[in-house]
Design brief:
This protein is α/β, with parallel strands linked by helices. The chain is 36% helix and 23% strand. Helix 8 runs antiparallel to helix 15 (433-468). The chain binds 2-deoxy-2-amino glucitol-6-phosphate.
Length: 612
């Protein structure tokens, strides 16, 4: 997610803005920029890389007179990390500068129209299109405010934006739609920002803007207006009690917990621009232009590590069931050294990697390329090595994942795999449109369902963690699409709480592992409402016959008798995994936190394993 700060006040504005960006660095970024109002007009400076590179650029500038400025740290979504894609972006006439966080879904059609009208674009971003759309509207609007509002009404998607105008050097215009933007109320100074840490040293008086609202601010005044009709909004400021660190976590105890609760947003952002409703109300097909020029593979090899490998195992169920594709899922460190590796020329190798830098996964990609096989990357980091070296790449749009344990990244990977399965089903004609629409509707219902369910799931996870925290070992059992989730649940418990955990196919227990069961070796079973439920229930009985304690994650109405029944909202298999996953994450999180472990930075782990 990008970081935004805008300032209008009495201090030298550029240092305030740069320091504000530094306090937003935890959000992750690949480039940064500032705009400030000098006596001779707007100045815009940008730099790829960290803030130090931007500060080098600023060193040669006369910045002390500016008391109005804005800044941006970019987490690339459209366009690779590069100075030309860094924000602020300026309009062709040089009079406007804009910073933006979010995704404008219809930017391509707007760009085509503006290009035909003679506008020139220097970046691959949707932001540069938006600032020129405002400039275009300004030609006929009575004021910049009305041009700003008109442009935002035409833009579809998510945005938090901040605009500066050469003709109004002490004023800032800002607005939000489905992306966070706050207003900081100071004395003789005012702020807008993506997050509280940006201006916390200056003021604790915050107004939380709502979707569809604009704020116009100067040093000594501000007004909040409704985007729809520019009618005024009155809203009380709230006093923030957080310290800086708590503010960076959005009030959550750890980044991991914050990122678990971000998963509804991750799904919303992942679906943005990916569904085609053909002019109707309901989404009826999937848009994956990244795949349009690639032939549908005869066989798909999914290759990844760790949590990303578990995503691939889960995705196989959908790709086989929905698209009828033969799929193999491989651990990258095994794939890369297999002597007899058989790859057909019409196969495709799909490498999944949040960081896009995992050494084993990158090596697997290079082997596939050497074999002349089509390669596709599924990554979260724009411009990462895997993203650059794969023949094509799909980005998961999960935003930076700060906690070492991967949570929202897996959710985003599963979402993209579901969309890929539906997309290839479209192309192969392996699913009728009614079934496709039903599944798309279920995917669209996920954010609201998870937003409603997560607080109760967290409370249950907390209660169970306190009951089972003394266990030395845990079994995680699942069948079918729940087997990869059992593996992920075991991985999470291991890497966060350092408790030994085995993820196992429930049907495999009787082939040996059941010898481990005793009253001190609890089993966490995924017993969701699907066709395999009766088999899973039999496995639970086998465990209980050996005095094993059982936690069962299930749905209301399922006939189960276990030590701890954890009910979550039902969803048709395999989409039920989107509800089961956060439950597993929250249980591991609460176990680790209760045991006093370093949740965000577990011992021995790195966020990206760039070595063998
Ligand atoms: C998951 O919690 C771990 N941090 C780890 O298994 C991770 O998923 C694995 O190293 C792969 O990383 P990648 O997705 O960046 O390639």
């Amino acid at each position: 997610m990008c970081g935004i700060i805008g300032y209008a006040g009495h201090r030298p504005a550029v240092p305030v803005v740069v320091e504000g960006l530094r306090r937003l660095e935890y959000r992750g970024y690949d480039s940064a920029g500032v705009a400030f109002a000098g006596h001779d007009g707007l100045h815009v400076l940008r730099a790829k890389g960290k803030l130090a590179a931007l500060e080098e650029r600023l060193a040669g500038e006369v910045i002390t007179t500016a008391t109005c400025a804005m800044g941006h740290t970019r987490w690339a979504t459209h366009g690779v990390p590069a100075e030309r894609n860094a924000h602020p972006h300026t309009s062709n006439d040089g009079r406007l500068a804009l910073v933006h966080n979010g995704i404008i879904e219809n930017y391509q059609e707007i760009k085509s129209r503006l290009t035909a009208a003679g506008y020139v674009f220097h970046s691959e971003t949707d932001t540069e299109v938006l600032v020129n759309l405002i400039a275009e509207k300004r030609k006929t609007a009575p004021s910049l405010l009305e041009a700003f509002a008109a442009a935002l009404r035409e833009a579809h998607g998510a945005y938090a934006v901040c605009l500066m105008d050469t003709d109004a050097p002490g004023s800032i215009l800002a607005a939000r739609m489905s992306a966070p933007l706050l207003f900081g109320l100071g004395t003789g100074e005012n702020f807008v920002a993506s997050d509280i840490p940006a201006f916390l040293p200056y003021t604790r008086q915050v107004i939380f803007l709502e979707d569809g609202e604009i704020v116009r601010a100067t040093a000594n005044g501000y007004e909040i207006l409704r985007l729809a009709d520019l009618s005024p909004v009155q809203r009380e400021a709230q006093t923030i009690q957080w310290d800086m660190q708590a503010a960076q976590k959005g009030g959550y105890r750890h980044f991991m917990l914050k990122e678990i609760f971000e998963q509804p947003r991750v799904i919303t952002d992942g679906l943005a621009g990916r569904l085609d409703n053909a002019g109707g109300q309901q989404a009826c097909s999937v848009l994956l232009p990244e795949l349009d020029d690639l032939p549908v593979p005869e066989r798909l090899h999914i290759v990844a590590c760790g949590t990303s490998y578990h995503s691939g195992l889960w995705g196989r169920h959908l790709l086989e069931e929905w698209a009828g594709l033969p799929v193999q899922v491989e651990i990258a460190s095994e794939f890369r050294y297999r002597e007899g590796l058989a790859l057909g020329q019409k196969d495709m190798v799909l490498v999944i990697s949040q960081s896009g830098e995992t050494a084993d996964t990158l090596a697997a990609l290079r082997i596939a390329r050497e074999r002349g096989v089509q390669t596709l990357g599924l990554c979260n980091v724009v411009g990462s090595s895997i993203a650059r070296e794969a023949s094509a790449v799909i980005y998961t749009q999960a935003g930076p994942e700060i906690s070492v344990a991967s949570t929202k990244a897996m959710c985003s990977q599963m979402l993209m795999l579901a969309l890929m399965a539906l997309y290839w089903a479209q192309r192969r004609g392996s699913m009728d449109s009614q079934a496709r629409q039903a599944r798309l509707s279920q995917l669209e219902s996920l954010p609201a369902l998870l937003d409603a369910a997560l607080p109760d799931m967290h409370a249950t996870a907390r209660q169970l963690a306190r009951k089972y925290a003394q266990a030395d070992s845990f079994f995680y059992l699942g069948r079918g699409h729940c087997f990869p989730l059992a593996l992920e649940g075991a991985l999470k418990l291991k890497e966060l709480s350092y408790i030994h955990a085995e993820g196992y196919a429930a049907g495999e227990m009787k082939h040996g592992p059941i010898a481990l069961i005793d009253p001190d070796f609890p089993t966490f079973t995924l017993a969701l409402d699907d066709t395999l439920f009766p088999k899973v229930r039999s496995n639970i009985v086998e465990v209980q016959a050996r005095q094993g304690k059982v936690i069962a994650l299930s749905n209301p109405g399922m006939d189960l008798s276990v030590d701890d029944l954890w009910l979550v909202p039902p969803l048709p298999a395999p989409l039920a995994g989107f509800v089961a996953l956060p439950a597993l994450q929250l249980f591991s999180y609460e176990m680790a936190d209760y045991l006093g472990k370093d949740v965000d930075q577990p011992r021995n782990l790195a966020k990206s394993v760039t070595v063998e």
